[in-house]
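Supplementary Methods. Inverse-folding protocol.

Structures were first reduced to a discrete structure-token string of length 117. This string, shown here, constituted the complete conditioning input.
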């Protein structure tokens, strides 16, 4: 079990970029899947994308071509590079490690991203 902490959120203008980081307190190499999720105000949490331990990625259609997930197992980090941001990307972004058992899943506390002019 590891603790997760997101960072890098903030206010950015439409069309801008941000890079979010997810730092784990321990070894992440043994976890097959790591996930970025987000939740906008008044909406349900949604999947942004995921990355396997081997580096294979999957993205939500809404972010495909604009967002990129990477993972550094050696340093226990995951990243979310976000480009061409729009106001619809405004949300709290969470780092998540699913385990197959919801009570054992690992979540960060989230980092807020606001896209506004």
């Amino acid at each position: 079990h590891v603790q997760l902490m997101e960072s890098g959120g903030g206010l950015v203008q439409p069309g801008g970029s941000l890079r979010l980081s997810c730092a784990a307190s321990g070894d992440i190499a043994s976890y097959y899947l790591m996930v970025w999720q987000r939740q906008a105000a008044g909406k349900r949490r949604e999947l942004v994308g995921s990355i396997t331990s081997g580096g294979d990625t999957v993205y939500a259609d809404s972010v495909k071509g604009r967002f990129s997930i990477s993972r550094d197992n050696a340093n226990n980090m995951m990243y979310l590079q976000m480009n061409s941001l729009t106001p619809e990307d405004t949300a709290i972004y969470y780092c998540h490690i699913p385990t197959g058992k919801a009570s054992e899943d690992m979540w960060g506390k989230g980092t807020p991203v606001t896209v506004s002019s």
